[in-house]
Write a structure and sequence with these properties.
Chain lengths: 947, 68
């Protein structure tokens, strides 16, 4: 694919079904009602010059370049703001228009530097194009008058620069920040000639302002006023490949714009069904880790973890690994071996890893990082609805009247979807936030929650049961829906249970700390406010009752009939790019792909026939069970692809002890991560830019990942897994991930209609894609639930065993921040560290004052499992008694204080509730210093012997 | 042998979350949950334990498992 800019139709597409026929430059054109004349012209191949218009923004009508003549209409209306009408006759190119447009261009160019040959946007500048289009040959006003050419540039943002000398004040950047991103960080300061784009308040630059570096302004800018620094350094790209982002579960699609093998920029793809041309700071800009000097590009092995690494070739590394796996299997049996698939890798790669474990190792000891995030979603939604997936596509939110966000912080963790959600909220949808913290959604420009239920951490089930109590006892149940779509007996039992007086908001207020009146109002709004949609995140799942909370959410949606159509539903916001896919692919130890239990002989037989091997009918170990079993000596070898369990999993000391007890730890990753401190084999991984495959996002949307450059280490991750399988004698012969997808489709009913060829043709597909749903399923459970009738589950509130007390009086909850991602392996190796260079501890002013703490002070954070130190940030975003931090930095290792408590059904860790004490400290703890020294020792690489 | 105390804690936690369904169903659901999600060595360890660390429902569930 060569380089062509994305088409720009000038104004957004109209959605009306009714059509209008008009004539433009003598051609009959038929478009939807509400389409602008500019877009109608563009859709039939016309090119009306424009500057302030772009199709991601509403028409603005300020540049006066897109003027047209319309028969019967006076003057020369702007085509961007003029809607089409039946029988309208439009002329876009006339001598009168040419003269007007040239005059307008003269004014623009009279205050614009004429350095086109050395400008970073030369060849990619709409001003340059417009000047050419209108035939501008001279500027009568010269360059000597008052101008802005000496204005100084703002290079504070690490990824893009703002040069006001090149700004034509078209307001596209300001409108992009408002309409697309919803941050409202930019404005036009001053009036008339003094008008200038400003970021934040007076005195701010882009970096210090509220700007979230989503890049929408850069994408919208028609000149080089806002331009990527990489373009200025490297030059314009020469080819573009559409691929899928490897950060969060939104699954944005981007054009990777390349110059040879060098990535110049990632530009959000307008036709992306998940992101519609928008992006966030991570996907848009934070890809520098792909070429970071820390990447390890060759395999390494060592006999013991106290030894330095020895660099070896692929053959030696694979043989070393296979020999040891075989020896351990011979001595201790197949169940002593296991693997962990990665939610950052492709569907094809996770499928291969679980196949390697089941068919090659001979056990079902395979698990995935979803264990520590959305495994309760799998359990809860399968139990209630029949399958483990969110019910809606993202666009469904535009039909929601009430949006309930519980345990999620989408503006930080799922920012592109959050922008869409905020757009709907600005249109008037009402918002309920259930979260212990005052997240940005609670109150931000033009968005304010109708109700913020700032509950005590660990009381989700009590809050949701109290809401159900209100809905049932006040007669707000959608009885027709329940009667028709749900199991009657289970509903009756549930309704009796929640109606008990002990579940009233008034009684439960003592537990939840949510004022009863506020909770009642929120429940009434959810039940009666029109289409109501629930969005949830890890604040729901990462609790000892994570699965119960998911089922309580499903109960609420069923009871109010908010399931099975647009604008409603239950929507888990998946943390990593391919959490959904990794779960779909059979990464859990108890089930094969498509969520079918390993004990099902008929299902197992399909795989056995395809793989020519007998499978173990018993479930395998989950990650925490693997660590426990390692300590008892019955689990000895672990293959970890693309996950850093030492940093991401709870109770770091316990994880370290489990890893240290194993005979063989194989880390397959981009970097020598923390887990690699305990590894014997390091196999270099490939980035998403270096391989083909698919990711599945939070809306079950399967999208292609396309290779844009060769793997730096020589092999894509699927090839490494295949090479390991073949070293074990399995004889795999895949030549491309499309062949792996063909196997997935053959063995997985929900993927039966999926192929790379079809994805290439159609852009994306939302599973199930099969005979019953040949074109996929944007909305699930429309006619009936996957399990038949919806199943209500009684979810009794069981308090966590993690208790505060005199030693540990505060509750710690953990989360993530916009600029960083998960354990930070990728984002810490980019300029995103400018926004978050260390994890900090948020603490309420009252708790801080009691301890004599101020923002920036070192504090010791201690729980019964361990302690660490980090700096304090005093803020009332957290409630008194609650503290909050992120887990992005290994120097902090927030998980050294989290505990082994976990969800009762899935063992998903209870990250969100840890009893802690906070006190002043004078610097890093002894443990942190010891850990840093040990990590440095472990990362030694032996020098090659002299010739 | 997997840590019996840890396994007993897990079994008790499962039973406690099924308890609201009534004793008979909770015992059956707990036993089925262990059957569906526990690795054989974990099942073997809980069956080999003397049950003293198990709550009433969990103990009954383990008995049910023992019966097949």
């Amino acid at each position: 694919m060569g380089y062509e800019p994305q088409a720009d139709f000038g104004t957004p597409a109209a959605s009306a079904e009714a059509e209008v026929t008009l004539t433009i430059d003598g051609r009959a054109v038929t478009v939807p009602t509400g389409t602008s004349v500019m877009r109608a012209s563009a859709e039939c191949g016309g090119a009306i010059p424009k500057l302030c218009a772009t199709d991601s923004l509403q028409a603005f009508g300020s540049c006066r370049l897109c003027l047209v003549e319309i028969d019967g209409m006076r003057g020369t209306p702007a085509s961007c703001t003029t809607p089409v009408a039946p029988g309208m006759v439009v002329h876009t190119q006339t001598p009168r228009l040419a003269k007007l447009r040239r005059s307008v261009m003269e004014l623009y160019i009279s205050d614009h530097p004429l350095d086109c040959l050395t400008c970073s946007a030369n060849g990619d500048c709409e001003l340059e194009d417009a000047a050419a289009a209108v035939g501008l040959r001279d500027v009568r006003y010269g360059q000597g008058g008052a101008n802005h050419l000496a204005a100084s540039a703002d290079a504070s943002n690490p990824y893009f620069a703002f040069d006001p000398a090149k700004c034509i004040v078209c307001s596209r950047c300001v409108r992009a920040c408002d309409e697309v991103q919803g941050t409202f960080a930019l404005s036009i300061d001053g009036r008339g000639f003094a008008s200038a784009v400003g970021a934040g308040q007076a005195g701010d630059d882009f970096l210090s302002s509220e700007c979230v570096s989503c890049g929408a302004c850069v994408a919208a800018c028609p000149t080089a006023a806002l331009n990527e620094k990489a373009v200025a350094e490297i030059g314009l790209p020469e080819r573009a490949v559409v691929t899928t982002c490897a950060y969060c579960g939104v699954g944005c699609t981007f054009r990777a714009e390349m110059k040879g093998e060098q990535l110049v920029r990632m530009v959000p793809w307008k036709d992306g069904k998940a992101n519609h041309g928008h992006s966030c700071v991570k996907g848009r800009f934070a890809w520098g880790y792909a070429n970071h000097k820390d990447r390890v590009l060759g395999p390494m092995i060592r006999e013991g973890v106290d030894q330095p690494w020895r660099e070896v070739g692929w053959d030696e590394a694979l043989q070393f690994t296979a020999d040891r796996l075989a020896a351990i299997k011979a001595r201790h049996g197949a169940r002593a071996l296991g693997g962990i698939t990665s939610s950052r890798c492709t569907n094809e790669e996770t499928f291969l890893v679980q196949k390697l474990v089941r068919a090659g190792f001979g056990s079902n000891n395979v698990d995935t990082c979803a264990r520590v995030c959305h495994s309760p979603t799998g359990y809860g939604l399968k139990t209630t609805f029949g399958t483990s997936a969110g019910t809606q596509d993202f666009d469904s939110v535009m039909d929601a009247d009430v949006i309930l966000v519980i345990g999620a912080n989408p503006t930080d963790a799922h920012p592109v979807f959050a922008s869409q959600m905020k757009r709907r909220l600005r249109q008037g949808a009402r918002l309920i936030v259930i979260d212990p913290r005052r997240t940005d959604l609670v109150r931000s420009p033009h968005v304010e929650a109708a109700h913020h239920l700032a509950l005590q951490p660990g009381t989700n089930v009590a809050v949701l049961t109290a809401m159900a109590h209100v809905i049932v006892t006040e007669g707000l149940v959608d009885e027709a829906f329940v009667r028709e779509r749900c199991e009657g007996d289970a509903y009756a039992e549930w309704a009796r249970f929640v109606a008990e007086p002990r579940h009233s908001p008034e009684v439960l207020e003592a537990v939840t700390r949510v004022p009863a009146a506020e909770l009642r109002a929120a429940a009434r709004l959810y039940a009666t406010g029109g289409n109501a949609a629930i969005y949830y995140g890890l604040g729901v799942t990462e609790h000892s009752q994570g699965s119960s909370t998911v089922m309580a959410i499903a109960n609420l949606a069923m009871a109010t009939g908010n399931i099975g159509r647009r604008g409603v539903g239950v929507n888990p916001l998946r943390g990593q790019n391919n959490v959904q896919g990794a779960c779909d692919m059979g990464s859990f130890p108890h089930e094969l792909s498509g969520y079918r239990h390993i004990s099902d002989a008929a299902v197992r037989a399909q795989f056995e026939a395809d793989w020519h091997v007998a499978l173990d009918p018993e479930p395998g170990l989950r990650i925490p069970n693997m660590l426990d079993a390692a300590l008892d000596g019955s689990f000895r070898a672990l293959y970890v692809q693309g996950e850093d369990i030492l940093q991401s999993d709870p109770n770091t000391h316990h994880v370290a002890a489990g890893l240290a007890a194993m005979e063989l730890v194989i880390v397959h990753d981009l970097f020598l991560n923390e887990t690699a401190n305990y590894a014997h084999v390091f196999l270099p991984g490939s980035t998403f830019l270096e391989k083909d495959g698919t990711f599945t996002n939070a809306e079950r949307r399967i999208q292609l990942v396309r290779k844009v450059m060769e793997p730096a280490a020589g092999l894509a991750d699927w090839e490494v897994t295949q090479a390991l399988a073949n070293a074990l004698g399995l004889g795999w012969s895949y030549t491309h991930p499309r062949e792996i997808m063909a196997e997935i489709a053959r063995l997985t009913p929900t993927f039966a209609g999926v192929s790379h060829e079809r994805l290439d043709r159609e852009g994306s597909l939302q599973w199930p894609v099969n005979e019953a749903h040949p074109d996929g399923s944007p909305i699930m459970h429309m006619e009936g639930f996957v399990r038949g009738k919806g199943h209500f589950v009684v979810t009794d509130y069981v308090p966590t065993d993690e208790k505060t007390g005199p030693r540990f009086p505060l509750l710690l909850t953990t989360g993530r921040i916009l600029s960083q991602y998960n354990v930070g392996a990728q984002t810490r190796r980019t300029d995103n560290v400018l926004w978050h260079e260390e994890d900090v501890l948020e603490i309420h002013p009252t708790d801080a004052e009691n301890r004599g703490l101020a923002s920036g002070d070192w504090v010791r954070l201690a729980s019964r499992t361990g302690e660490t130190t980090l700096r304090a940030l005093v803020t009332d975003r957290v409630a008194p008694g609650v503290v909050y931090t992120t887990f992005h930095h290994p120097e902090t290792q927030a998980n050294v204080v989290t505990t082994e408590f976990s969800d009762w059904a899935t063992n998903c860790p209870e990250y969100k509730v840890t009893a802690v004490q906070v006190m002043a400290s004078n610097g890093p703890s002894a443990w942190q210093e010891d850990y840093a020294a040990q990590a440095a020792r472990s990362r030694r690489i032996a020098a090659e012997p002299a010739e | 042998m997997m840590d019996p105390a840890r396994l007993a804690y897990m079994a008790n936690q499962i039973a406690r979350n099924f308890a609201a369904q009534g004793e008979a169903r909770a015992v059956g659901a707990t036993a089925q949950h262990i059957r569906d999600f526990w690795d054989p060595r974990m099942k073997a360890a809980i069956l080999a334990s003397d049950g003293s660390a198990l709550d009433r429902l969990a103990r009954a569930a383990v008995e049910q498992l023992r019966g097949g």
